[in-house]
Amino acid sequence: MNKRALIIGATSSLAARICHRLAEKNYKLFLVARDAEELEIIKNDLRVRYNAEVITQKLDLSYITFSAAEFVQNIEEKFRFPDSVFMVAGDMGAADAREENIERVTKINYLQPAKILEIIAEKMGNRERGRIIVISSVAGDRGRASNYIYGSAKAALSTFASGLRNKFSHDNVHIMTVKPGFLDTPMTYGMHSPLIWSRDKAAKTIIKAMRRKREVIYVPFFWRYIMLIIKLIPEKIFKRLNL
């Protein structure tokens, strides 16, 4: 492994902690996100703390003109091809189902990541090595009134990752799906619950699972059982619940 990692969606709370854990292990990092100012802050922090080699690039996956092929080619030209790719891009979207909201959420959480990962997986398959870590969500395990647009996009991403895992299983390409539950991010600020895990602990768990070549993990682990119970609730009862 050449210890080069591409992190897409690098400014998210979880992704930032993953960057720290990788920098500790002497990875060279290529960080991509739509907030260029925040990218610079993270890059400078990693350089000061770990003397890490960090390259950044602004990218908004909601752009109509986005080309996955051009993006991957640009990565290769600037960084050489990464050994590990973390797809952490995500957007919860608004609380309604307006057409533009559905389009934006689907594009950022599924369509554009899928286009990028398809190209990257093919290249890794040709090289017969590589790791892809796909950050999905427990929200994709069952549609709920509070976030079914986001959840449906993440469900599609999880299914896509499962297909990639099957397709490249004989090419030494490890593809892991991560389904986070509640973490201590800005989204859960002010909430007090034993179900909320620290993002640093989550990042360590993800890196450890990647090294062990796990295929699907829930973070924290107990969300696997929470979602199993939720999925088993009969539809007639489920639709009456306020989840």
Plain-language structure description:
The protein has one domain (4-238): Rossmann fold (3-Layer(aba) Sandwich). The protein is globular, with a radius of gyration of 18 Å. The model has no long low-confidence stretch (mean pLDDT 92). The protein has a seven-stranded parallel beta sheet, with helices on both faces. It is an alpha/beta fold. Helix content is 47%, strand content 16%. The chain has helices spanning 13-24, 36-50, 68-79, 99-127, 148-167, 199-211, 223-232, 235-238; strands at 4-8, 28-33, 54-58, 84-87, 130-135, 173-180, 216-219. The protein contains eight helices and seven strands.
SSE inventory with pairings:
Elements: E1 4-8, H1 13-24, E2 28-33, H2 36-50, E3 54-58, H3 68-79, E4 84-87, H4 99-127, E5 130-135, H5 148-167, E6 173-180, H6 199-211, E7 216-219, H7 223-232, H8 235-238
Parallel strand pairs: 1-2, 1-4, 2-3, 4-5, 5-6, 6-7
Helix pairs in contact: 1-6, 3-4, 4-5
Overview in brief:
The chain has 243 residues and is of the alpha/beta class.
Supply database-style keywords.
single chain; 243 residues; alpha/beta; Rossmann fold; 8 helices; 16% strand; globular
Q: What number of domains?
A: 1
The CATH architecture comes to: 3-Layer(aba) Sandwich
Q: Which class of secondary structure composition applies to the elements?
A: alpha/beta
CATH class: Alpha Beta
Helix content: 40-55%
> In which order are the strands of the major sheet placed?
3-2-1-4-5-6-7
In total, how many beta strands? 7
Overall, the morphology is globular
Question: Approximately what portion of the residues adopt beta-strand conformation?
Answer: 15-25%
**What is the averaged pLDDT score?**
92
CATH superfamily grouping: NAD(P)-binding Rossmann-like Domain
Query: Runs with pLDDT <50, length 5+?
Result: none
Radius of gyration: 18 Å
Distance between the termini: 43 Å
Helices and strands, in order, run as: EHEHEHEHEHEHEHH
| Biggest sheet character | 7 strands, parallel
CATH structural fold name: Rossmann fold
